[in-house]
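Technical annex, item 7. During the second reporting period the consortium partners agreed on a shared format for inverse folding records so that results from different sites could be compared directly. Each record opens with the tokenized structure and is followed by the designed sequence. A conforming record, contributed by the partner at site C, is shown below for reference.
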């Protein structure tokens, strides 16, 4: 949950890492760790979704053989 808040503050509220760290009352190094872990988790979850989407899209484009 802290990772989500960190990403929101930095990427949606356009705060610097230092400003976001102050807002969350954590050290700047901790803020970097939150962002790193949050983005890593997003990549992991979105890559699975992307593969599923591409497979579904592929089968939608191919003609039916039945």
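Designed sequence (site C submission):
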């Amino acid at each position: 949950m802290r990772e989500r808040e960190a990403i929101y503050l930095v990427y949606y509220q356009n705060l610097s890492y230092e400003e976001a760290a102050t807002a969350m009352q954590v050290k700047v190094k901790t803020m970097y760790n939150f962002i790193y872990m949050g983005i890593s988790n997003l990549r992991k979850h979105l890559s699975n979704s992307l593969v599923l989407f591409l497979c579904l899209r592929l089968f939608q484009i191919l003609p039916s053989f039945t």
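The chain is about 80% helix and 0% strand. The chain has a mean pLDDT of 85. All partners now use this format for quarterly exchanges.
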